[in-house]
Design a protein that fits this description.
mainly alpha
Length: about 450
């Protein structure tokens, strides 16, 4: 187990935070190329209809994937805290319970999406000319959810043990394979959105199986043999308590953005839908450093909560916020200085570019504010108090972002710009709520160990 374990309760906090975050950032950066490669290749070979289709369907896939990521995050926190508390006998039980739970969830969600694909897409106002492409992309991605869930679970397990490097190897291989298959299936054979979806699912499957094989050959604590897949009711109860709020808040946040896509589709049709998709892909890349840093902070906090070291918890929080601000504010500048260049990467036509630049300018203020909410949420997640992020994000998504988008975009008539401004406005509200929770100190309650520890100063 030692090869895959890194003690985050000792050493320089700055150094450990950065060295943990960098491989995870690169992994997420490479993994994000999956969706962007689909958009760019489809944009250049198939046009705006295909990009609009992929934008809507991929957001549906992201919602269900984020539910799995919530449970996986619960596994990361539990493993990290057990590791910090030197209770390694419980780690194997957590891994088996997590993998079984996510396997069942993947089958249920895949079946639901396949059966309900048409009504879901209709409810989201998918333009008629993009409906068939959106449907095939969604169906193929739904069929491959088991591989997406599996890889995310394995990555989360290793992060809990302090290892952010191993998953990088396999996601790199899978990404290269995905791009090759995109050009082959979409560009050469002309399979359109179906080919792009098939390339993504196949690549995710390769990534998962390569990761499993490598871990088995290198004496990982969990050997993936049938008798190792044991289900613990007690560990599942903690996993639900810690991971479900995080999963729900991810789903709620992404569902609110999916509804925003429906509003944008209604306001501006195919061009607006494609433009919001491009901004969404840019944002997917731009937010990766903050996600990597916050995830690293959560993993470090989890281990230090188990070891009862509050001083390192607070240092990790402070340093993470500083790093996130430095990176996000640079991205804000890039989004405002080079917006046309960003859109031209996707082969944008004149109408799409005109709408997209307006939306990008309004949306870009998100990068000024998002470091604050994401840093505080990292604390709540790492301590097992994901219910705080659930409360914060649900309020900002449905009481601020959506009503404001409707008011500014449709009632006042600002169009896509109004929808864009609603996003940073909601983040500002969420940051203020999260800050109040942080000052209250309620996050010090340890949800995993079921105790209120007296942490070391």
């Amino acid at each position: 187990m030692a090869k895959f374990t890194k003690d985050l309760t000792k050493g320089n906090v700055w150094t450990q935070l950065i060295w943990f975050a960098v491989p995870f950032f690169i992994s997420n950066l490479i993994q994000s190329v999956y969706g962007v490669a689909d958009m760019m290749i489809l944009g250049n070979y198939c046009g705006s209809e295909s990009m609009s289709a992929v934008n809507t369907s991929s957001q549906i896939a992201i919602i269900v994937t984020n539910l799995a990521m919530g449970f996986s995050t619960g596994g990361t926190v539990m493993i990290g805290q057990y590791l910090g508390a030197q209770r390694s006998e419980r780690i194997k039980s957590v891994i088996g319970t997590l993998l079984i739970s996510l396997g069942v969830l993947a089958v249920v969600l895949s079946t639901g999406l396949i059966l309900l694909a048409d009504p879901i897409l209709s409810a989201l106002n998918v333009p008629t000319q993009a409906f068939a492409d959106a449907r095939i992309y969604l169906l193929i991605n739904a069929a491959g959810l088991i591989f997406v869930f599996g890889y995310n679970a394995l990555s989360a397990i290793m992060r809990g043990m302090g290892d952010s490097k191993t998953p990088l190897i396999f996601v790199t291989i899978a990404c290269v394979l995905n791009i090759i298959l995109d050009f082959l299936l979409v560009g050469y054979f002309g399979f359109g959105t179906g080919g792009a979806a098939a390339a993504t699912v196949f690549s995710q499957a390769v990534s998962m199986f390569l990761c499993m094989g490598y871990l088995r050959r290198n004496d990982f604590i969990f050997d993936f043999k049938p008798d190792s897949f044991t289900f613990s009711k007690s560990e599942f109860a903690v996993l639900v308590k810690v991971g479900l709020p995080t999963g729900i808040q991810h789903v709620a946040t992404n569902f609110s953005f999916l509804l925003l896509t429906g509003i944008i589709n209604e306001i501006g049709g195919v061009a607006a839908g494609a433009a919001s998709g491009i901004v969404g892909k840019f944002n997917g890349f731009s937010i990766l450093p903050d996600v990597a840093i916050s995830t690293s902070v959560s993993a470090m906090i989890a281990q230090n909560m188990g070891a009862k070291k509050e001083d390192r918890v607070k240092k990790a929080t402070r340093y993470g916020l500083m790093l996130c601000c430095g990176i996000s504010w640079v991205i804000f500048a890039i989004a405002n200085i080079f917006p046309e260049q960003i859109f031209m990467l996707f082969g944008s036509d004149e109408e799409l570019l005109e709408i997209g630049l307006v939306y990008m300018k309004a949306f870009s203020f998100e990068y000024v504010l998002v470091p604050f909410i994401i840093s505080f949420n990292a604390v709540f997640t790492g301590t097992g108090n994901g219910w705080i992020t659930l409360v914060t994000n649900t309020i900002t998504s449905f009481a601020v972002r959506l009503p404001l988008a409707i008011y500014l975009g449709k009632i006042i008539g600002l169009g896509v710009a109004g929808v864009g401004y609603s996003i940073p406005a909601a983040t500002l509200a969420g940051s203020l709520i999260a800050f109040v929770f942080y000052l209250s100190g309620i996050w010090k309650r340890n949800a995993v160990m079921k105790e209120k520890p007296k942490l070391q100063e």
